[in-house]
Each structure stands twice: as C-alpha cells, then as structure tokens.
Recover the amino acids of this structure.
C-alpha cells in the first residue's frame, strides 16, 4: 500500500493516512486505496480507527492533481469521494477518528463521515475552499453541516478561519478532546469497547439513527418502534438481557465514580 497503513489490534482495524510529505492530501489513487482498505476492514474487523501519520491528520483534496481536472472530471471525482465515504458512514462497523494538526477541507469531510471523533489539543479545523475558489465536494455540505450547523459552516467557509479542538467540541464536530498525542490511544480504546456491542445494535445505531434524524417526528417514532422490537427479539439480545438479569453482565457506571 502506498498511501495508507493497516494494522489490527485484536478485532479493531487501525488505518493510517500515510502521505505525510504532502500532509496526507487525498489524490484519486489515495481514494481508491481507501476503498480497498475499507473492504479488508469490513471483512476482518468489528470496529475501526483512522488517524494521520506525520504532523497533521489531513490537508484535504490534493490541489496539485485537482488543478489539472476538467469540470466533469471534477464531478466524477467528487462523486467517488461520496461513494467511498458512504462505505464508512453507512457501512457495517463503527469508525473512530483520531484527529491532530490540520483537519481541513476534505480532511474534515473524511472526519465527518466517521461515527465518533477524538481530537487532541493540536487539532485545528477549517474549510478553506472559499479562499481556493472551489466548493466542498467530499460531502461536507451534507455531513459537516449536520454536525456543526449551516450557520457555522457558512462562517468557516466565508472567513477561512480555523477553529481549535475545544471550539470544535462546542460545535458538535468532535466528541472528545484529549491532550496532545493521546487521540489515537483514546480512539482505539473507544473502538475496542464498541467492538463488544451486539452487531445488530451497532447496525441499527449506524443505519437507523441518521435516517430517523432526517425523518419527521411521527415517521421517526414509528420506524423506531419496529427497530426496537426487531433488535430486542434477536438471540443476541436474549442472551445479553439474561446475562444482566442473572448478574453476569456489568452495570452502567457513574462517570463520577
Ligand atoms: C499539499 C496540500 C494539498 C499541503 N494538496 N499538496 N486544502 C487546503 O487548502 C490546505 C492546504 N494546506 C495547508 O494549508 C498546509 O499545507 C497545512 C496547514 C495543511 C500544513 O502546513 P505545513 O506547514 O505543515 O506544510 P506545508 O509546507 O504547507 O506542506 C508540505 C507539502 O505538502 C507542500 O509540498 P512541497 O512539495 O512544497 O513540499 C505542500 O504543497 C503540500 N500540500 N497540502 C496538495 N491540499 C473533495 S473536495 C475537498 C476540497 C478541499 O479539500 S479544499 C482544501 C484543500
């Protein structure tokens, strides 16, 4: 593999963006390699983590390659990013991001397709497309806008400003902020825990939650009742519910000890 690394820690896949000399800028070949890696991860793992090698998570679209494209090649390129990132967001297992340094442009779009994001204190976030004379094309108008809201995304795009990790957390764009250098360990720990969940619950969380969120209230509640009943009557649920009732499963913990 040229642009990515792939390791396994038990049933957790750890995917590294590995083009540090170009700040992990994403070219066409990079996207195709990511697609191949997702297939292998789906076959072998129960949860996955993605992080960046070098000083930054990801500098976004490879601008050197993009500048040579015709408008229609640009459309196909954007649609290919959509396909590949959809295999993450609407795939079969949960993806956790370990973010540090620049998480910008397409890097933020990739991060937005993950299910949980951990940023370390060095992380910063920006959408510099406005300054480059382009628009987002890797799903940010759908995914990033749903995380931070259209108004905040508009602000980032119009002003070109960067926000730090704490602001990104306030803006619902990252879930955890940890000290510098600790994002990967935290993301792996979270992924290991998620890998122990019932597969059917994980699938419902990944696929039903975002769809229901897009529905009207009454439609969402109706759909929820069927998913709740379907998952609760699965053999795995029966085993896990009985494990709790017979005191073989852990209790919910109080975060304050
Ligand atoms: C790149 C790219 C890139 C770096 N495409 N080559 N993204 C951006 O507009 C962000 C552009 N990048 C930056 O602002 C900075 O590079 C960083 C803040 C991310 C990092 O700064 P630094 O000082 O650590 O690195 P550097 O010296 O700027 O970059 C090192 C090399 O990476 C350098 O190449 P070199 O040959 O001179 O060594 C840079 O040119 C190269 N490089 N970023 C190509 N993005 C599907 S639509 C998505 C739309 C977008 O993503 S638009 C936002 C694009």
């Amino acid at each position: 593999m040229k642009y990515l690394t792939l390791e396994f820690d038990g049933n957790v896949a750890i995917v590294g963006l590995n083009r540090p000399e170009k700040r992990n800028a994403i070219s066409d070949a990079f996207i195709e390699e990511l697609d191949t890696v997702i297939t292998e991860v789906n076959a072998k793992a129960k949860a996955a983590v993605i992080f960046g090698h070098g000083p930054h998570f990801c500098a976004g679209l490879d601008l050197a390659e993009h500048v040579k494209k015709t408008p229609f090649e640009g459309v196909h390129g954007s649609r290919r990013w959509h396909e590949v990132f959809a295999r993450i967001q609407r795939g079969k297992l949960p993806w956790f991001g370990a973010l540090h340094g620049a998480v910008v442009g397409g890097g933020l779009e990739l991060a937005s397709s993950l299910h949980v994001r951990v940023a370390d204190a060095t992380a910063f976030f920006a959408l510099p497309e406005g300054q480059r004379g382009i628009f987002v094309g890797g799903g940010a108008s759908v995914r990033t806008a749903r995380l931070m809201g259209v108004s905040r995304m508009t602000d980032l795009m119009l002003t070109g400003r960067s926000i730090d990790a704490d602001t990104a957390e306030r803006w619902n764009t990252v879930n955890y902020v940890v000290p510098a250098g600790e994002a990967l360990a935290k993301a792996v720990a979270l992924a290991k825990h998620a890998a122990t969940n019932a597969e059917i619950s994980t699938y419902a969380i990944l696929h039903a939650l975002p769809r229901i969120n897009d529905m009207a209230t009454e439609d969402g509640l109706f759909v929820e009742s069927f998913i709740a009943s379907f998952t609760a009557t699965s053999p795995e649920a029966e085993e896990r519910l009985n494990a709790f009732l017979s005191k073989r499963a852990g209790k919910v913990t109080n975060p304050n000890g």
